[in-house]
Amino acid sequence: MSQIVCKNLAVGYNGIPAAENINFTIEKGGYLCVTGENGSGKSTLIKTLLNLIKPISGTIEFSDGLTQKSVGYLPQYSDVQSDFPASVTEIVLSGFLGKKKVNAFYSSEEKKEVKRILDMLGILTLEKKVFSKLSGGQKQRVLLARALCACGGLLVLDEPVAGLDPEATEEMYATVERLNREHIISVIMITHDMNAVKKYAKQVLKIGE
């Protein structure tokens, strides 16, 4: 069953398109890689899917129980304040904020879910560590765990391995592939890594042509 259908989409700012004529369908368990030159509108597309900006024209339809509020989002590492003085558990719990009422406390079920996700990603031993003291690869895994707390079936990843060393890069790709394959989590990933596209993508969307 389709989770997202985009038809004749144009995205941009102040009515000026950054990318136009975007058409794609994501089925449950899909893996779409979005490629294109810098400035072609890839990140603008992601922000539109997340409802951070409105489309200039065209439509985005969510189905199969998916909504914009149930999309797990992992931004570019450079967009994240890496010296944030919080524990790993606090960072990951913040992934639930979009689902909560104002000033609501975290439930015991949410705290258990954080432990489950950290364990699933192989980083449960980091739960009490300070986020700013982690390596780059560890930080990305923590941020992926946070995205999974918000995820209702779709992960959106904006260049998730940018700035990571080769070992951490392979670990991140393998983790995302496992989430897609074993947990049937759909993936939309922006990447310049054509080797990763060839290895993991079930669909490819090239922006800017």
Number of domains: 1
Mean pLDDT: 89
Q: Which regions have little confidence, pLDDT < 50, spanning 5+ residues?
A: none
CATH topology: Rossmann fold
Structural class: alpha/beta
Fourth-tier CATH superfamily name:
P-loop containing nucleotide triphosphate hydrolases
Strand order of the largest sheet: 5-6-7-3-8
Number of strands: 8
Count of alpha and pi helical runs: 6
Over all CA atoms, what is the radius of gyration? 17 Å
Overview of this protein structure:
- The protein is about 30% helix and about 25% strand.
- The strands form 2 sheets. Strands 5-6-7-3-8 form a 5-stranded parallel beta sheet, with helices on both faces.
- With about 210 residues, it is α/β, with parallel strands linked by helices.
- The chain has 6 helices and 8 strands.
Topology summary:
Elements: E1 2-13, E2 16-27, E3 31-35, H1 42-49, E4 57-62, E5 71-74, H2 88-93, H3 108-120, H4 136-150, E6 154-158, H5 166-182, E7 186-190, H6 194-200, E8 203-206
Parallel strand pairs: 3-7, 3-8, 5-6, 6-7
Antiparallel strand pairs: 1-2, 1-4
Helix pairs in contact: 3-4, 4-5
What are the salient characteristics of this protein?
single chain, 209 residues, alpha/beta, Rossmann fold, five-stranded parallel sheet, three-stranded antiparallel sheet, 6 helices, 8 strands, globular
Write a short abstract of this structure.
This protein has six helices and eight strands, in the order βββαββαααβαβαβ. With 209 residues, the chain is of the alpha/beta class. Strands 5-6-7-3-8 form a five-stranded parallel β-sheet, sandwiched between helices. A three-stranded antiparallel β-sheet has the order 2-1-4, covered by helices on one side.
